[in-house]
Structure formats: structure tokens, C-alpha cells
Specification:
Rossmann fold, 12 helices, 13 strands
Length: 428
């Protein structure tokens, strides 16, 4: 009986894919193969749902593709897409799984006529990056508690009102200096750079905010000029750039010490919340109070301990005398005990020495008698007393062999008592 898969997992193990597994695999391949990319085409069938999501078709003369732009991304556009417009979208290639439909998930959108300007932006960005203007090692840390903040922007810009409102809300005690400058139009970039140089030279601020509201790439182009980037890096004061919306990126953003998504975000980065500072100070005050009390208590305990150790000099003398008397008594008792022990030891040692001495004398006398007897046996005189004699030649040599004696030779013979002199007449 053939095997029939009973579940999606069993089917995959048997080499049979379900529709959802197939579509999911194709989607994963597409998303890995095609990361976020720019695609140019004409908008067709554009609709905006009640949820705020935008659905449309992007087409050219030979093909078309479905697109979706979700509400969060669509709300960032400061212009209204329309039917028939030529646009460029930055999108992720994917599949809509429920229908297996190939589509683009759009992250941002711009009018197609901006392509050459964007190419100019990329070339300038690469050139400045090679110069090291965007090197993270050269970026400065923002002051944690600035007293004065400078704002470089147009007096007519809505961004200025947003920044001032945010700074006043977060910490009204921070002073604000506004450096007015046009942020749009011909020559604005050079004037922005000059104002940054002037603010740096005046050195009256702890931090500078370079801000502008959203707009098209042409509106923001003054922040894509090399003069602005060089002025930011040359500033003696740290610079935060907040230009456009979150999706906008300018050369000034890359050159800044800190980039903010919006002007309001730049103001929030610039100063801490006053309420947070007050809470922090209160906490530090509590910790300082606890530490002070702990140290006072520790010192008080040390004083008490020292007070207990303090003694009047007369009392110390009395204590010293008592201690000396006790030590003297203990020393005398110890000496007396040692003397008694020595006397006892001597008393028991004398009889033992006498006994040992008598024993040693007896052993020595017996040994001497034994040696005397042994010496007596070896004494030549004793041998002679037993009838033996010793005969020597004229040279005094003891004779043991008659062959060594010549006839007529004079000999000397020692007896037990007395000596004899003789002459050899004959030998055998």
C-alpha cells in the first residue's frame, strides 16, 4: 500500500511541498536575492485604503508590478502620489503569500525627475567620505548638561518653532541663541557654512543645532553641499543636524557629530528633561544624605571605642604597678619551682651516680685483670721462666735458624735470670 503523507511536515519529508511552504521558500529567496532597491516606473491604479495603506501598480512599456506602501511610510511623504506620475520607489522585492502574488513593499518614494540629482548626491558623499569627513573617530560627544544651545536655521522656518517649544518644555533654564540664515534657495549653503563659522568663533554656546523641516530633494539640497559639511567638521562646537523627516538623509547628516531624525528630535537630543535632572539630583541628594549619615555613625562608633580605651594616667600607673607585682610574684614562684625541681633531681641523682660509679669501677678492674692476664701470657719473661731462652747474634737479631749462624760467631743468650755469651764451635 503506497505511503500517503498525513501532515505538511510528513509531506516535506517525502519530497512533496505544500503550497504555503513553496510560496514561503520563494519569498525568502526573493528577499535575500533582492535587498532594498530603487525601481522607476509610472503609477497606475493608485488607491489609499481607510487604514492609510497605499496600493498601486508600477509599470513601464514592457511590464508592471503590484506595490504596497504601508501607512507609517506613506505618512512621511510631503507630496501626494497621483495616477500617471513617474516615480522612483525604494522597495523590498517580496511575495504576498495569501495570493502568491509578486509585489514590491515600498519604503519611500520620490518623483522620477530627481534621479540625476540623487546621483550627484552619491558622488559627493563618496568624495567626502574618502576625505574622512564622516569618520566616526572624529565625531565629538555631546555635552550632557549644556547651558546654552545655538540654533542655526531660518527665522521663518516651522522647524525653529518646534525646536524652541521642545527646548522650553524639556528644560526652560537652558539659554537659546538663534543664528538666522536662509535654509533654501541659491547661495543658502554658503551662508549656512558662514553662519556655522561665525557661531563657532563667537563660542557662546555649548552645542549647535542645524535644523530644517521636510521637503523635496531640491528643497534640502543646500544641506548636500560640501561647504556645509566642511563647516560642520571645522566647528569648535559639537553640531547636531536635524533636517527633514526620518527617511531624509543629507550630506550634513553624515558630517554631523550626531544626526537627529527631525528638528524636534534634535532638540530632544540637545538637552535632558528638567524633570529627569530634578529626579536625578533628588536621588543624588538622598544617596549623599545616606552616605553622610553612615560616615557620621562610623566616626561616632570610633570615638566611642577610643573613649573606652582612654584611661587616666594615675589609673594606668596603678594598673602597671599591679601588673608588675603580679609578674614578680609569678616569676618568684616559677624560680622557686625550678629550684625545688633541681634539688629533687640532684637528690635522686647522687645515689644513682655513686652506684653507677662503683659498677663502672668493678667492670674496669675486671677488664684490667683480664688484660693483665693476657699480657702475662704474652710476656717474654714469663716464657723464659718456663725454661725457654732467646739467642741473638752480635747484631742483636733473634736467631731462629742455625743455618744463619757461622762457626766462631759470638752469640748472646738471654735466660729467665741473667745472660750468657758463647762462641759457635760447631752447628748441625
Amino acid at each position: 500500500m503506497p505511503y500517503e503523507p498525513t501532515s505538511e511536515l510528513d509531506a516535506e519529508r517525502a519530497g512533496v511541498l505544500s503550497v504555503s511552504a513553496l510560496v514561503r521558500s520563494v519569498r525568502d529567496v526573493l528577499e535575500r536575492r533582492f535587498p532594498l532597491s530603487w525601481v522607476r516606473g509610472e503609477i497606475s491604479n493608485f488607491t489609499r485604503a481607510a487604514s492609510g495603506h497605499c496600493y498601486f501598480t508600477l509599470k513601464d512599456d514592457a511590464a508592471q508590478v503590484d506595490c504596497v506602501m504601508f501607512q507609517g511610510r506613506a505618512a512621511l511623504l510631503d507630496w501626494a502620489p497621483r495616477e500617471g506620475m513617474r516615480v522612483e520607489v525604494r522597495a523590498l522585492v517580496t511575495l504576498y503569500e495569501p495570493r502568491g502574488r509578486f509585489q514590491l513593499r515600498v519604503e519611500t518614494m520620490r518623483e522620477a525627475g530627481l534621479g540625476p540629482l540623487y546621483e550627484r548626491f552619491l558622488k559627493l558623499k563618496q568624495a567626502l567620505e574618502r576625505e574622512g569627513l564622516f569618520d566616526p573617530a572624529g565625531k565629538r560627544a555631546l555635552p550632557p548638561y549644556p547651558r546654552t544651545v545655538g540654533v542655526v536655521t531660518s527665522l521663518a522656518a516651522a522647524a525653529l518653532r518646534d525646536v524652541l517649544t521642545t527646548l522650553a518644555r524639556r528644560n526652560p533654564s537652558v539659554a537659546v541663541v538663534v543664528y538666522p540664515v536662509p535654509v533654501q534657495g541659491v547661495g543658502a549653503a554658503q551662508r549656512i557654512a558662514e553662519m556655522l563659522e561665525r557661531a563657532s568663533a563667537r563660542a557662546e554656546c555649548d552645542l549647535l543645532l542645524l535644523v530644517r523641516g521636510g521637503g523635496s530633494i531640491e528643497d534640502l539640497w543646500q544641506f548636500n553641499e560640501a561647504a556645509v559639511a566642511h563647516a560642520i567638521r571645522a566647528s569648535a562646537i559639537p553640531v547636531v543636524v536635524g533636517v527633514g523627516h526620518e527617511t531624509d538623509a543629507t550630506i550634513a547628516d553624515f558630517a554631523a557629530d550626531q544626526r537627529a531624525a527631525t528638528p524636534t528630535a534634535a532638540a530632544e537630543l540637545a538637552v535632558p528633561q528638567r524633570a529627569e535632572l530634578v529626579a536625578r539630583l533628588a536621588e543624588l541628594a538622598r544617596r549623599a544624605g545616606r552616605e553622610t549619615r553612615r560616615r557620621i555613625e562610623t566616626v561616632a562608633q570610633s570615638v566611642d571605642a577610643l573613649a573606652r580605651r582612654l584611661v587616666h594616667p594615675a589609673e594606668r600607673l596603678r594598673s602597671g604597678r599591679t601588673l608588675l607585682a603580679q609578674l614578680g610574684a609569678r616569676l618568684a614562684a616559677s624560680v622557686a619551682r625550678r629550684l625545688d625541681a633541681a634539688r629533687y633531681a640532684l637528690g635522686t641523682l647522687a645515689p644513682r651516680l655513686a652506684t653507677a660509679d662503683a659498677r663502672r669501677r668493678e667492670i674496669a678492674a675486671a677488664r684490667i685483670a683480664e688484660l693483665h692476664a693476657r699480657l702475662g701470657v704474652l710476656d717474654p719473661q714469663a716464657v723464659l721462666a718456663r725454661g725457654y731462652s732467646i739467642t741473638r747474634n752480635a747484631a742483636g737479631e733473634v736467631l731462629r735458624d742455625a743455618a744463619r749462624v757461622g762457626e766462631g760467631e759470638r752469640l748472646h743468650t738471654t735466660l729467665a735470670r741473667g745472660t750468657l755469651e758463647s762462641e759457635v764451635r760447631r752447628k748441625r
